[in-house]
From TrEMBL:
This is NAD(P)H-dependent oxidoreductase. It comes from the Bacteria. Residues 7-155 form the NADPH-dependent FMN reductase-like domain. InterPro entries: Flavoprotein-like_sf (IPR029039), FMN_Rdtase-like_dom (IPR005025), NAD(P)H-dep_reductase (IPR050712). It comes from Streptomyces phaeochromogenes. It holds the Pfam family FMN_red. PANTHER family: CHROMATE REDUCTASE, NAD(P)H-DEPENDENT FMN REDUCTASE LOT6.
Length: 198
């Protein structure tokens, strides 16, 4: 990875059959790769073992000794090495998928003092309710949420051939990625200068 790029992890949150998330995630990853500020890795939660039952200890205090399943090892390593995240999420019942909540809850320090941006999709609200809930959760984990996200209302009619029909979408993505790159650099420098006081 070049010195002027940041390790970006794009998380595809939905594991539902017939989901649209991989389409959005692939497009966003393409935008991030052309942006030039990131080394991009896409994580699809449908490919990860994510049990709903959690160990008694908190990952905040257990650290490296936290007993995660072997099938989660790649996810944990990828989150740990990331400088920034983009979460691609649908909206289920005015919130985000259980798969994403479980993936978040199995970790703690991996999110700390790192920026997170959101790309959502759904019906009329475009997944915005899911993002509002995620901002609260990730703030609790000491992540820094990015203001300018992307939302795709009525995605089932707003996309064609793997791309959004709105010609402004790449510009919105660039704004998100510009802010994410700025925060990734600032927070990485801060983490290197001094441990985060969590």
């Amino acid at each position: 990875m070049e010195n002027n790029t940041h390790k970006l992890v794009v998380i595809v949150a939905s594991v539902r059959e017939g989901r649209f998330g991989p389409v959005v995630g692939s497009w966003l990853a393409e935008q991030a790769e052309s942006h030039g500020g990131f080394d991009v890795d896409v994580v699809d939660l449908a490919d990860v073992e994510i049990p709903l039952s959690l160990p008694a200890a908190s990952p905040k205090y257990a650290g490296d000794d936290y007993p995660r399943p072997d099938g989660m090892r790649r996810l944990t390593t990828t989150l740990e090495s990331a400088d920034a995240f983009v979460v691609v999420t649908p909206e289920y019942n005015h919130s985000y998928p259980a798969s994403l909540k479980a993936a978040i809850d199995w970790h703690f320090t991996q999110w700390t003092a790192k920026p997170v941006a959101f790309v959502s999709y759904g019906g009329a609200a475009g997944g915005r309710h899911a993002v509002l809930h995620l901002e609260n959760v990730l703030t609790e984990l000491h992540a820094v949420t990015i203001r300018d996200g992307l939302a795709f209302p009525n995605y089932f009619t707003a996309w064609q051939d793997g791309r959004p029909l709105d010609p402004e979408s790449p510009g919105y993505a660039k704004t998100l990625l510009d802010q994410l790159a700025w925060w990734a650099g600032a927070l990485k420098s801060a983490r290197e200068a001094a441990p985060y006081p969590a």
